[in-house]
Amino acid sequence: MNTKASLRQECLALRDAERDRERKSHAIQRRLLDLPEFLGSQRVAFYVGVRSEVATRDALDTALNVGKHIGVVYRDRDNLGVCLIHAITELTQGSFGLWEPPTELRSTPERQLRTKAVDLFVIPGLAFDRRGGRLGYGRGYYDRFLAESRPDAHRIALAFDAQVLDEVPMGPRDQRVHLVVTERAVYRVSP
Q1: Mean per-residue pLDDT for 163-167?
Q2: Where are the alpha helices (DSSP H) in the chain?
Q3: Best exposed site among 71, 109, 171, 176 by fewest CB in 10 Å?
Q4: How far apart are CA 7 and CA 9, in angstroms?
């Protein structure tokens, strides 16, 4: 088994075993909402946390209520897209159990948010390091997606502190994040 595959299994088991996820997710979301990068961004692309991922619904709801343009990431075949939403109630459960905007909403031109228009990406993953390394689920969705983003767009990963490792193996196509927000700290990556 290759290093990334075995590390994915270990990190998923570690995240699944995380205790008090709800309280920790709330603390992580609070930290995200207080970041200057978040406060200064108008167009934010969120993932919606499922299973043992850091939850994002409260932060999503708060961001909508303060007037930010919020897009939710969805899967379209082998790629990701972003659809603007006006309320969490617009989301439905789609592929892989993910909460996404329904197809009819995603196909509405005024609801589409181009990747290059996003100021800040809120990103999930299995493991991260303090240099911005990210270990995803192995299909490259976020790597392809983030490769299309603007150089000045912020990439913020949400993770439990146990998901921050000394080093995450990175390949040439793997995309780095700029900050990792946990229940204990905000890890900023030096440029």
Answers
A1: 95
A2: 3-16, 21-34, 36-39, 57-65, 103-106, 141-147
A3: 109
A4: 5
